[in-house]
Amino acid sequence: MEESLRSGSFYVNQRWLGGILTNYRTIQKRIRRLVEIEEMETSGSINIYPKKEIAQLRKEALRLENFLGGIKEMKKLPDALFVVDPIEDHIAVAEARKLHIPVFGIVDTNTDPEAVDYPIPGNDDAVKSIKLIVSLMADAIVETKGGLLTAAYQEGEITDDITMKDVIINVVQQNEENERRRRARNEERRAQQTTRRPFPPRRRDFDFKRETDTDDSAEVSVTSAAGSADDKRPARRPVVKKVEEAPAEKTETTAPKTTDKVAE
């Protein structure tokens, strides 16, 4: 958008609405609607409507500005069309070819060069690549208008071409710089570890030793008959073992079989 404004060109930086070129009369009606709402906003006549209608009008104007703001001042069909990605903007390319409008486009490895009239080999996914090519296209337009160029070659500028040797030297320098930064980070971490306050020693089990007293023992004082000093010694409770009685064996009692004989 910046390069379009610099070169005085029209642009569409949102989704391409079908019929912008082939159905331009209908698009002009929507552009007039956008201009009408903007004039109402400028003159203040929009305030006579209720708040709900004002909100709807502003929402409509925002949507029209988003899709058609770049071609609001376009009074006729363009003489040429430049697209960044012919695959993404295939509708725009198809409309331009239908109206015999020449198409310039960045052609990547996944794009058919025959889809556009003037293919420009380049990467259409990288931001830097797109910015460079778009700035060169804008400079080509500005040059015809006598404006100031930003990226294209100008007279008086002498620059040496970049060779493979320069690329290798640049890569080696970057690797050395990365290695220096890595060593600096490691030294900083070692310094932080040495100056870090040591952790307190862990509490061992022997720090919590306590006298072993049996819960079931109690001190009792035994006084001798002669009135000697108390002899304190622990008295243990008697341990009663429960003996589990074996279950009584079940004896099967079978009644004697009696055979009654009936005397005839």
Automatic annotation (TrEMBL):
Ranges of biased composition (kind: Basic and acidic residues): 177-191, 202-212, 241-264
GO MF annotation terms: structural constituent of ribosome
Keyword field contains DNA damage: no
Keywords: Ribonucleoprotein, Ribosomal protein
SUPFAM superfamilies: Ribosomal protein S2 (SSF52313)
Any GO BP annotation: translation
InterPro entries recorded: Ribosomal_uS2 (IPR001865), Ribosomal_uS2_bac/mit/plastid (IPR005706), Ribosomal_uS2_CS (IPR018130), Ribosomal_uS2_flav_dom_sf (IPR023591)
GO cellular component terms listed in the entry, alphabetical order: cytosolic small ribosomal subunit
Keyword Repeat: no
UniProt cross-references to HAMAP family, sorted A to Z: Ribosomal_uS2_B
Similarity annotation: Belongs to the universal ribosomal protein uS2 family.
Entry protein name: 30S ribosomal protein S2
Organism: bioreactor metagenome
Organismal lineage: unclassified sequences, metagenomes, ecological metagenomes
